[in-house]
Amino acid sequence: MANAEAGAGRSGTDDDGGDGTRVDHLMDGLRAFGANYTEFTRRFASWLGLHSTDAAALVEILYAEDKGAPLSPARLSERVSLSSGATAILLKRLEQAGHIVRTRESTDRRVVTLRSSPGIRPRAEAFFGPYAQRMAEAMSAYSPQEIQRFEDFIGRLSSTMDALLANEYRGGGPAL
After folding, report:
1. How far is CA 87 from CA 54, 65, 76, 92, 122, in A?
2. 23, 42, 67, 172: which has the highest count of C-beta atoms within 10 A?
3. H-type helices in 49-119, by residue range?
4. What pTM was estimated for this model as a whole?
């Protein structure tokens, strides 16, 4: 399956460390990193006593705030792949647990902005602090130019995935 996933359309594959093997190893590493990140979110959920979907939504809200672009319920719904109704129920649970607040910050008072509550941010920072520190330490081994190449690479992979999801997989899977 790895060859089918990573190797479709590539040439120059060999078993002694050539480009094909490197691509396979890179894809394995990306999958492992994704699985580990999912596990961090699962453990965050357990630590807070939340369902993993609720914790994933909370992480998305915190991340968006950190980036200076807080989410609306509709955007969160897209980010966590839930219907608007399921997202509304999830937000009610997070609000009742005291983890988020809904605000109206726009001049258009119909627009709702999701914010983390003051009490949850210190807990999230305590949980994810060691993760952030270790990731920063790991990345410090690379030059700014190498980091830029990694950013370009990850951006290109992300754009490719976005295009696949929007086109070939928009109905849930590829057309057969």
Report:
1. 9, 18, 8, 9, 24
2. 23
3. 52-66, 73-80, 84-96
4. 0.77
